[in-house]
């Protein structure tokens, strides 16, 4: 399929690394980071809901084919792409994904342009923990983790890891102690999430807001969309992004 109408294609470059971006809407800024295999129609539909709620949404294109449907082939192609890229961690623990530096730069630029308390950041599945890594930068005031699934939950250590270096985790904890909150969504029996929600609760305490659904679904705001989850995300953005 072609990419949905009304989205303005651009790009963002930081430290020599460039990725395409798609932008739409007005109001406080929200960065929606797609899941594997890329910016699918379901991801674009969710992003449009955020636009309709009164936000400026920017979707970076980190891998995959923009606008393509989720199929076995597109998923396999995206997995091959991320597995050879040095921008992403896949199995290593206690390490922040390198692309977080680029995403923080994107957030800073969006906040500088739009002003307000800060910007929102939402990641899904493979990118679910990226929003937490972006929170290291003070421009990000509304981080949302939808079924965070990296590092891949192979073994108990990886299943519990939150994809942050110890130093970055300390910064996140400090921000939470200062009143920042983090929203997380998952299906309770989703094996891809592992036990990292328990880790986040232990490390962040009441600052980590858990929204959990029964069953073995996975994509909480896209393919296995839950209206209660979408409502929780939009409410969280309203609480943290509007003056």
UniProtKB/TrEMBL annotation:
GO terms for molecular function: hydrolase activity. Keywords: Hydrolase. Gene3D superfamilies: alpha/beta hydrolase. SUPFAM superfamilies: alpha/beta-Hydrolases. The keyword Hydrolase applies. Signal peptide: none annotated. InterPro entries: AB_hydrolase_fold (IPR029058), Dienelactn_hydro (IPR002925), Dienelactone_hydrolase-like (IPR051049). This is Dienelactone hydrolase. It comes from Nocardioides currus.
